[in-house]
Amino acid sequence: MKSTKWLSEAVDISNIKSGVLNVIKAPCGSGKTTFALGSLTRMASRNSKYLYVIDTTNGRDQILKKPSTAKYSYEWEQFIKQGKQPQNVIGEYDLYDENKIVVITYAKFGSLVNRIPNFGYGFETIVCDEIHQGIRMASYKNKNITDRRYTLEAIKRLRELVDHSNVKVIGLSATPAITEKYFFRGKVHYIPVAPDVRQYETTETIKYNGISSIVDTIRAGDKVIVYVQSVTRIKELWNKLKAKGISRCSAIWSTQSKDHEMTDEQYNIRHYIIEKEELPPDIDVLLINASSETGINIRGQIDYMFVHTRAEDTRIQVRGRYRDNLKKLYVLDYDTEITIPDEYLDRPFFEEEKKELALKLNVKNEKGEVVGWTTIERRLPENHYRVVRDKDNGRWYRVITEDYSTL
Predict the structure, then answer these.
(1) What crossing angle do the helices spanning 74-82 and 106-115 adopt, rounded to 10°?
(2) Please, is 401 exposed, middle or buried when counting C-beta atoms within 10 Å of its C-beta (0-12, 13-18, 19+)?
(3) How far apart are CA 314 and CA 294, in angstroms?
(4) 3-class SS at 185?
(5) Strands 395-402 and 349-350
(6) Contact 357, 380 (CB under 8 A)
C-alpha cells in the first residue's frame, strides 16, 4: 500500500449530520470495519443506540466475530420495543447486553419494520454497510420475494429516518454511486475522505472473454478466487475444473438459496473462511457468487483472481475480498457490449422474437461466432439489464429492463 492513512484517520466524523444520508466512500483495505466499530460509535451515546446493518449473512457473521457486536435476539427486540430491559419474570428473558452493537441484515431490518411500527426511530446512529448492495437488493424484481420485500421495507424506512428524524444515517461503500442515482437523490451528503487513505493494490489487470479462459488458465496448485454471478454457472465451471483435474476446488453461495442447497462440506468451508479468514488448507480454488461479493475476508496466499462480470462496481467489491495486494486480476471483457434496442425494453416479447433480437444484436463469442438468444440472456445481467420470464395464456415471454429500478 502506497497510501498511509487508515479510514479512522482520513475522515472527520464531525461532518456527519442528521437529515441526510451521510455517505463515506471506504476503499477496500482502508480499515472500514475498525472505523465503523470504533470512531463511528462516538456518534451515539451508548452502543444500544447504535445499529449496524449489512447486506449478507456472510458479512453479518464476519462482523459478529468482533467482541463488541451481538446477533439479533428476541431479548434485544423486546428491549427495542420497550426502551428498557424487559421484566425478568421466572427466567422468561435473558438480559440484553447494552454494551453490544447489534448487527442485522437489511432483510432483518425490514422484517422488524413490519413487526415494530416505529422501528429505527429509537436509535441515534444507524450504519449501513455496503449501502449500495441494500439498494440493489431492494430494486431486484427477480430476487427471492421475501428478502426483496423486506429489504425494500428497510430502504424505505431509512429514507423516512433521513427525512423525518434526528437519527444519523451513515452509508459505507467502496462503490457508492448507485446510492445517489437510484434512491437518496438530493439527500446525499458525501463525507470527505483524505486522498491518501489506504487501499489494496493490484499489479496487473488482465482481460479475458469467457469461462473457457478461466479453465485454461487455472493450473493444479494455483491459489485462486473466482467470482461467477449465478450458482448454475458456478456448477458448470466447477465441473469443467474437475474434468481438467483441478480436484482441490470448491464453492460457496448463499445459505438462503432454496434451489441450490450447499452440502455439509460447503458449509464447513464457509465457516472456516469466516472464522479463519483464509482458504482451508485442502482448497486451492474457491468459487463464489454475489452472496460473497461483500462481507467475507480472505488472507494468505492468493496467486490471482477471476471476476466474471463486466460491472465495475462488482469488480471492485470482489477484488476487496482478498485482503492484501494482488499480482493479477482477471476481468471479463467481451469484445461486444450488449445494448438492447429501445423497442425491446420494458414490454413483453415472445418466443418468436428471440431469434430476431439475437440476429439484430450480432453478438459474437470468443471464437468469432454469432451467439444465440440463450447466451445473450445469460450475459444481460453483466450488461446492466435484468430479464423477467413469465407466461400469458400459455405463451412464454420475456421483459427486459435496465438493471436498477428507481425506488
Answers:
(1) 50
(2) middle
(3) 9
(4) coil
(5) antiparallel
(6) no
